[in-house]
């Protein structure tokens, strides 16, 4: 059983044969967890490649067959993970304060423009 079933699984998980025969089961578990993690990361990487390739094909075919005068298709401008990190960035306290300041400055400018427009119209 060990030689036919468990040993091949452990070898596939990256464990040497010597380590297999000289280890307890709890010492082997991290190798299986690492193998699961490698598979998950590999799967995610292949999925991202699929998205990039699909985008490249869509842009190439879309531009080749687009109607005259229509807007051309564009390639992704940044990697998916960079875009995700930008969209899910947690603001620091300083960034929050700066955001509130710029919002009030914009609202003040809008108020001034409205008042100036009202004076010119009336």
Number of helices: 5
Percentage of residues in strands: under 5%
Structural class: mainly alpha
Q: Count every beta strand, where a strand is a DSSP E run of 2 or more residues.
A: 0
| Overall spatial form | elongated
Chain-averaged pLDDT: 88
Q: Using only CA atoms, what is the Rg?
A: 29 Å
Instruction: Quote the distance from N terminus to C terminus.
Output: 94 Å
Q: Uncertain runs with pLDDT below 50, 5 residues or more?
A: none
Q: Give the count of structural domains.
A: 2
Q: What order do the helices and strands follow?
A: HHHHH
Helix content: over 70%
Summarize the structure.
The chain has 122 residues and is mainly α.
Give a verbal description of the structure.
The protein has helices spanning 2-12, 17-21, 25-64, 80-87, 93-121. The chain contains five helices and no strands. The mean pLDDT is 88. With 122 residues, it is mainly alpha-helical. The protein folds into two domains: 1-69 and 78-86; 90-122. The longest helix has 40 residues, at 25-64.
Indicate the topology:
Elements: H1 2-12, H2 17-21, H3 25-64, H4 80-87, H5 93-121
Keywords:
single chain; 122 residues; mainly alpha; 2 domains
């Amino acid at each position: 059983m060990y030689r036919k079933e468990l040993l091949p699984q452990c070898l596939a998980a990256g464990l040497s044969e010597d380590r297999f025969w000289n280890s307890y089961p709890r010492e082997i578990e991290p190798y299986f967890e690492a193998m699961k993690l490698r598979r998950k990361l590999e799967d995610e990487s292949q999925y991202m490649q699929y998205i990039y390739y699909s985008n490249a094909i869509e842009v190439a075919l879309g531009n080749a067959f687009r109607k005259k005068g229509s807007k051309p298709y564009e390639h992704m401008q940044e990697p998916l993970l960079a875009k995700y990190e930008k969209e899910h960035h947690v603001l620091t306290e300083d960034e929050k304060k700066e955001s509130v300041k710029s919002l009030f400055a914009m609202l003040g400018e809008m108020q001034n423009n409205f008042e100036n427009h009202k004076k010119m119209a009336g």
